[in-house]
Design goal:
homodimer; mainly alpha; Tetracycline Repressor, domain 2; 10 helices; globular; DNA-binding
Amino acid sequence: MVIAESVLASAPTRGEVTAARILDVAEALFARHGYEGTTLRDVAAGVGLRTPSLYNHFSGKDALYAAVLERGVAPVLSALSEFARDGSGDPEGLVVTVMELLAGRPDLPRLIQHEILSGGECLMPLLGDSIGPVFARAHEVAEASPGAGAWSAEEIPLLVLAMYHVVVGYFTIAPLYAELQGQDLLTQPAIERQTRFLGELVSILFSGTTKE
Amino acid sequence: MVIAESVLASAPTRGEVTAARILDVAEALFARHGYEGTTLRDVAAGVGLRTPSLYNHFSGKDALYAAVLERGVAPVLSALSEFARDGSGDPEGLVVTVMELLAGRPDLPRLIQHEILSGGECLMPLLGDSIGPVFARAHEVAEASPGAGAWSAEEIPLLVLAMYHVVVGYFTIAPLYAELQGQDLLTQPAIERQTRFLGELVSILFSGTTKE
DNA sequence: AGAAAAAACTAACTATCGTTAGTTTGTCAC
DNA sequence: GTGACAAACTAACGATAGTTAGTTTTTTCT
């Protein structure tokens, strides 16, 4: 059996194609109903398969869930790592990058939030050492900002958490907001507005510049 | 044994006592594992009962969940309504009030987040017209602030959503943060720190005052 | 074309879910 | 005390979950 192919890969196997389709359907269902609320029969039906056929691609429900989570979280983590790697990454650029990433996969934030609410036992192994550097870099940026000293050292992590929640929460509350205010937050103009808003937020909170 | 009774109420029936205990256990379990992930057998075991005994107090799992949600969400909604009722409520006071509320019931934010992730179909009937006035009042405050015009009209709802997510998200991510950074966000000093942080955030974002 | 491997299928098992029926225990008014 | 009612119990049902075994179809390689 030919193993995973990289950049110059050959055409994907039939099995790899259906495996990807399974991941797509499972991601949507896990994001909407959580792990316990999602049934393998629903996943199979979404793909157009019978339940046992899933076992030709994944060893079980747990493994499928882990695969969905890993595939979904990977691009975000790599963006975070790149931001924290060299000292050149600015928070505003990170926010824009992450927003573009999530806009293309609006199920991902809900998937991650479900995982976090359930304790994050499946997410934590994936985080590895991608998170620590982000906090470190946030400290650097905050201290080098014009309004230096505005935030105490113990407040920086709270600021990072706050930014995380604002970014992710926007997507998770979109369905409720649609029914509550009759406005779809996931349209392209709405997402662009939110991205602008986040940019201003970062500018105010990290650089200490008041809005003009 | 004489139990603590509310201000002017008669003594609670034995049934009311166990009903309250059922609600307590169910709230904790629903908050941790969500609706689908919580089993009535676990609820009963947590109370020290057999599963069918739950049906002496609630007509089924759905009704129990609805009761938990209603009891949990009521104080928050009344705080929101009071904030929006007369024009005197300031955002900082609201944030402090809500933080005190949630600090006393740290399961509540996770319960609400689970509900929102699942579409909020059970939450929405409870919201009624408690939410609209909050947005309206936010507009008033933002426009009457010293840095008036700093936020455009279309950004005010985003600001309200952002504040909501920062407040609620703090509690939902606490368990993961504990394992990730080895720090418990739910201790009293940590919550007081977060409350101060939120106060500064509101001050900056609503009043337009830069941190000194 | 034909053999071998991959990937679909049918059928069914075990466990556990929410729920119901019927019974026993406990509590309180008279 | 004794009857009446509330609230616990035991036993079990039907439905559905994840999973396995065994079989048939489809693809792939020579």
